[in-house]
Design brief:
Distance between the termini: 32 Å
Strand content: over 45%
Order of helices and strands: EEEEEEEHEEEEEEEEEEEEEEH
Structural class: mainly beta
Radius of gyration: 21 Å
Domain Trafficking protein particle complex subunit 13 C-terminal: 127-221
Organism: Crypturellus undulatus
GO cellular component, one term: TRAPPIII protein complex
Helix content: under 10%
CATH class of the largest domain: Mainly Beta
Shape: globular
Domain Trafficking protein particle complex subunit 13 middle: 3-113
Pfam family, one: TRAPPC13_M
Number of domains: 2
CATH architecture of the largest domain: Sandwich
Protein backbone atom coordinates (compact mmCIF):
# COMPACT_ATOMS: atom_id res chain seq x y z
CA UNK A 1 0.00 0.00 0.00
CA UNK A 2 1.19 3.49 -0.81
CA UNK A 3 0.90 4.75 2.78
CA UNK A 4 3.03 1.95 4.24
CA UNK A 5 6.56 2.88 5.25
CA UNK A 6 9.37 0.30 5.41
CA UNK A 7 12.33 1.19 7.61
CA UNK A 8 15.65 -0.64 7.39
CA UNK A 9 18.05 0.03 10.28
CA UNK A 10 21.68 -1.07 10.07
CA UNK A 11 23.38 -1.36 13.46
CA UNK A 12 27.14 -1.79 13.61
CA UNK A 13 29.40 -2.70 16.54
CA UNK A 14 32.25 -0.18 16.32
CA UNK A 15 33.84 -1.26 19.61
CA UNK A 16 36.81 -3.60 19.93
CA UNK A 17 34.93 -6.43 21.68
CA UNK A 18 31.75 -8.47 21.01
CA UNK A 19 28.37 -7.14 22.19
CA UNK A 20 25.03 -8.83 22.83
CA UNK A 21 22.04 -7.03 21.33
CA UNK A 22 19.42 -7.18 24.07
CA UNK A 23 16.72 -5.11 22.37
CA UNK A 24 16.21 -3.22 19.13
CA UNK A 25 12.72 -1.76 18.79
CA UNK A 26 11.00 1.00 16.87
CA UNK A 27 8.70 3.32 18.83
CA UNK A 28 6.32 4.69 16.18
CA UNK A 29 4.96 8.21 16.08
CA UNK A 30 1.34 8.83 17.08
CA UNK A 31 0.03 8.30 13.54
CA UNK A 32 1.51 4.85 12.92
CA UNK A 33 1.37 1.24 14.08
CA UNK A 34 4.54 -0.79 13.65
CA UNK A 35 5.17 -4.43 12.74
CA UNK A 36 8.62 -5.96 13.22
CA UNK A 37 9.78 -8.01 10.23
CA UNK A 38 12.71 -9.65 11.99
CA UNK A 39 11.19 -13.07 12.60
CA UNK A 40 10.31 -16.12 10.51
CA UNK A 41 7.54 -18.67 10.96
CA UNK A 42 8.62 -22.11 12.14
CA UNK A 43 6.49 -25.18 12.81
CA UNK A 44 6.13 -24.22 16.47
CA UNK A 45 6.58 -20.46 16.83
CA UNK A 46 8.02 -17.31 15.31
CA UNK A 47 11.81 -17.35 15.55
CA UNK A 48 14.22 -14.43 15.25
CA UNK A 49 16.09 -14.17 11.96
CA UNK A 50 19.26 -13.69 14.03
CA UNK A 51 18.85 -16.89 16.05
CA UNK A 52 18.20 -17.24 19.78
CA UNK A 53 20.99 -14.77 20.65
CA UNK A 54 22.21 -11.79 18.66
CA UNK A 55 25.93 -11.23 19.10
CA UNK A 56 27.85 -8.68 17.10
CA UNK A 57 31.57 -9.11 16.67
CA UNK A 58 33.69 -5.95 16.26
CA UNK A 59 32.70 -4.09 13.05
CA UNK A 60 29.87 -6.56 12.33
CA UNK A 61 26.50 -5.18 11.22
CA UNK A 62 22.89 -6.34 11.72
CA UNK A 63 19.96 -5.20 9.62
CA UNK A 64 16.53 -4.74 11.19
CA UNK A 65 13.37 -4.20 9.16
CA UNK A 66 10.07 -2.63 10.26
CA UNK A 67 6.77 -1.86 8.52
CA UNK A 68 4.76 1.15 9.62
CA UNK A 69 1.08 1.43 8.73
CA UNK A 70 -1.06 4.51 9.39
CA UNK A 71 -3.67 4.15 12.11
CA UNK A 72 -7.23 3.85 10.84
CA UNK A 73 -8.30 7.31 11.94
CA UNK A 74 -5.46 8.92 10.00
CA UNK A 75 -5.58 6.59 6.99
CA UNK A 76 -9.20 7.58 6.34
CA UNK A 77 -8.32 11.27 6.08
CA UNK A 78 -7.17 11.94 2.54
CA UNK A 79 -3.87 13.73 2.31
CA UNK A 80 -3.14 13.83 6.04
CA UNK A 81 -0.70 10.94 6.24
CA UNK A 82 1.14 11.98 3.05
CA UNK A 83 2.43 15.12 4.74
CA UNK A 84 3.72 13.29 7.83
CA UNK A 85 7.51 12.94 7.85
CA UNK A 86 8.13 11.86 11.49
CA UNK A 87 7.77 8.08 11.79
CA UNK A 88 9.27 7.28 15.21
CA UNK A 89 12.54 6.54 16.98
CA UNK A 90 14.75 3.51 17.53
CA UNK A 91 15.48 2.18 21.03
CA UNK A 92 18.65 0.06 21.17
CA UNK A 93 19.91 -1.81 24.25
CA UNK A 94 23.07 -3.95 24.37
CA UNK A 95 25.50 -5.61 26.77
CA UNK A 96 29.27 -5.88 26.51
CA UNK A 97 31.17 -9.12 27.13
CA UNK A 98 31.78 -7.87 30.70
CA UNK A 99 28.05 -7.46 31.34
CA UNK A 100 27.99 -3.66 31.09
CA UNK A 101 24.75 -2.36 29.61
CA UNK A 102 24.51 0.40 27.03
CA UNK A 103 21.48 2.15 25.57
CA UNK A 104 20.90 4.45 22.62
CA UNK A 105 17.65 6.12 21.66
CA UNK A 106 17.69 7.99 18.37
CA UNK A 107 15.99 11.30 17.70
CA UNK A 108 12.77 11.20 15.68
CA UNK A 109 13.40 9.56 12.32
CA UNK A 110 12.16 11.26 9.19
CA UNK A 111 10.82 9.76 5.99
CA UNK A 112 10.60 11.10 2.47
CA UNK A 113 6.87 11.55 1.96
CA UNK A 114 5.68 9.36 -0.91
CA UNK A 115 4.05 11.14 -3.79
CA UNK A 116 6.17 14.26 -3.36
CA UNK A 117 8.47 15.28 -6.17
CA UNK A 118 7.68 15.53 -9.84
CA UNK A 119 8.31 11.95 -10.95
CA UNK A 120 8.07 8.81 -8.83
CA UNK A 121 9.76 5.58 -9.89
CA UNK A 122 8.76 2.48 -7.95
CA UNK A 123 9.78 -1.17 -8.52
CA UNK A 124 6.92 -3.59 -9.21
CA UNK A 125 8.56 -6.95 -9.83
CA UNK A 126 12.14 -7.69 -8.78
CA UNK A 127 13.57 -11.21 -8.33
CA UNK A 128 14.95 -12.05 -4.89
CA UNK A 129 17.87 -14.13 -6.17
CA UNK A 130 19.64 -13.97 -9.54
CA UNK A 131 22.62 -15.72 -11.16
CA UNK A 132 25.97 -14.03 -11.49
CA UNK A 133 26.56 -12.47 -14.94
CA UNK A 134 23.20 -13.71 -16.23
CA UNK A 135 20.55 -11.21 -17.42
CA UNK A 136 17.40 -10.81 -15.33
CA UNK A 137 14.26 -8.72 -15.69
CA UNK A 138 12.62 -6.14 -13.45
CA UNK A 139 9.56 -3.97 -13.99
CA UNK A 140 9.11 -0.43 -12.71
CA UNK A 141 6.24 2.02 -12.59
CA UNK A 142 6.81 5.70 -13.45
CA UNK A 143 4.20 8.18 -12.22
CA UNK A 144 3.92 11.86 -13.10
CA UNK A 145 3.18 13.53 -9.74
CA UNK A 146 3.35 17.06 -11.10
CA UNK A 147 0.59 19.21 -12.59
CA UNK A 148 2.17 19.44 -16.03
CA UNK A 149 2.70 17.07 -18.93
CA UNK A 150 6.23 15.68 -19.25
CA UNK A 151 8.21 14.33 -22.19
CA UNK A 152 10.55 11.74 -20.69
CA UNK A 153 13.83 10.22 -21.82
CA UNK A 154 15.29 7.20 -19.99
CA UNK A 155 19.04 6.86 -19.42
CA UNK A 156 20.65 3.77 -17.90
CA UNK A 157 23.99 4.26 -16.14
CA UNK A 158 26.11 1.25 -15.19
CA UNK A 159 27.60 0.98 -11.71
CA UNK A 160 30.60 -1.06 -10.55
CA UNK A 161 28.37 -4.14 -10.15
CA UNK A 162 25.11 -3.47 -12.04
CA UNK A 163 25.10 -3.40 -15.87
CA UNK A 164 22.00 -2.43 -17.84
CA UNK A 165 21.08 -4.28 -21.05
CA UNK A 166 19.52 -2.17 -23.76
CA UNK A 167 19.76 1.24 -25.37
CA UNK A 168 20.23 4.24 -23.11
CA UNK A 169 18.57 7.50 -24.10
CA UNK A 170 15.27 5.83 -24.99
CA UNK A 171 12.30 8.14 -25.58
CA UNK A 172 9.37 7.24 -23.30
CA UNK A 173 7.07 9.88 -24.75
CA UNK A 174 4.59 12.19 -23.11
CA UNK A 175 3.25 11.44 -19.62
CA UNK A 176 0.25 13.44 -18.46
CA UNK A 177 -0.32 14.57 -14.84
CA UNK A 178 -1.29 11.72 -12.47
CA UNK A 179 -0.64 9.20 -15.25
CA UNK A 180 1.69 6.22 -15.06
CA UNK A 181 3.60 3.96 -17.39
CA UNK A 182 5.21 0.56 -16.83
CA UNK A 183 8.78 -0.25 -17.82
CA UNK A 184 10.29 -3.68 -18.42
CA UNK A 185 14.08 -3.56 -18.00
CA UNK A 186 16.90 -6.07 -18.26
CA UNK A 187 20.18 -5.99 -16.35
CA UNK A 188 22.91 -8.22 -14.94
CA UNK A 189 25.31 -8.15 -12.03
CA UNK A 190 29.05 -8.81 -12.25
CA UNK A 191 29.51 -9.05 -8.47
CA UNK A 192 28.13 -11.63 -6.02
CA UNK A 193 26.30 -10.75 -2.80
CA UNK A 194 23.50 -8.31 -2.02
CA UNK A 195 23.56 -5.72 -4.79
CA UNK A 196 21.65 -2.47 -5.14
CA UNK A 197 19.82 -1.78 -8.39
CA UNK A 198 20.90 1.75 -9.28
CA UNK A 199 21.64 4.02 -12.18
CA UNK A 200 18.34 5.04 -13.76
CA UNK A 201 17.93 8.65 -14.94
CA UNK A 202 14.79 10.32 -16.28
CA UNK A 203 15.00 13.63 -18.14
CA UNK A 204 11.99 15.84 -18.84
CA UNK A 205 12.86 17.44 -22.19
CA UNK A 206 10.19 20.12 -21.76
CA UNK A 207 11.82 21.66 -18.67
CA UNK A 208 15.33 20.20 -19.09
CA UNK A 209 15.21 18.55 -15.63
CA UNK A 210 16.89 15.26 -14.76
CA UNK A 211 15.72 12.95 -11.97
CA UNK A 212 18.14 10.36 -10.57
CA UNK A 213 17.07 7.01 -9.09
CA UNK A 214 19.50 4.90 -7.10
CA UNK A 215 18.93 2.11 -4.57
CA UNK A 216 15.72 1.23 -6.40
CA UNK A 217 15.77 -2.35 -5.12
CA UNK A 218 18.16 -5.02 -3.89
CA UNK A 219 18.87 -8.48 -5.30
CA UNK A 220 20.95 -11.35 -3.97
CA UNK A 221 23.47 -12.40 -6.63
CA UNK A 222 24.79 -15.97 -6.43
CA UNK A 223 26.91 -18.12 -8.72
CA UNK A 224 24.88 -20.35 -11.05
CA UNK A 225 26.45 -23.45 -9.47
CA UNK A 226 25.05 -22.56 -6.03
CA UNK A 227 21.57 -21.98 -7.42
CA UNK A 228 21.58 -25.33 -9.27
CA UNK A 229 22.49 -27.20 -6.09
CA UNK A 230 19.54 -25.62 -4.29
Amino acid sequence: QIDEVFLEAQIQNITTSPVFMEKVSLEPSIMYNVAELNTVDTSEERASTFGSRTYLQPMDTCQYLYCLKPKQEFAEKDGVIKGVTVIGKLDIVWKTNLGERGRLQTSQLQRMASGYGDVRLSPETVPDTVNLEEPFDITCKITNCSERTMDLVLEMCNTSSIHWCGVSGRQLGKLHPSSSLHLALMLLSSVQGLQSVSGLRLTDTFFKRTYEYDDIAQVCVVSSEIKKKE
